[in-house]
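Quick illustration, no need to memorize.
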Amino acid sequence: MFKGVELYFSEPICSCEEKDLSWSIPRDKSGKPCLRVSCTKCEVELNIPNEKFSAVFIFEKLYPADQKRVDEEAQADSDDNNNSDNSLSNN
């Protein structure tokens, strides 16, 4: 079910020779989720506030309501294409 997470940074979070990082998404003092990345070697922690990061959830198999919406949109596009084909052939 779970395939993986990718985090992109512009530079290392510490001065260790090798990367050995872990991450979590705890809640900050106000209750909002934040991203915490830490080096397991030197124990440096980088806390990124909610306003500074975004997450996108991508699913190979959609939730039922999302699948229904995708199907409805595809049907509407198909209907639009059929209607435009018919109007071209009537000219």
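Residues 1-58 form one domain.
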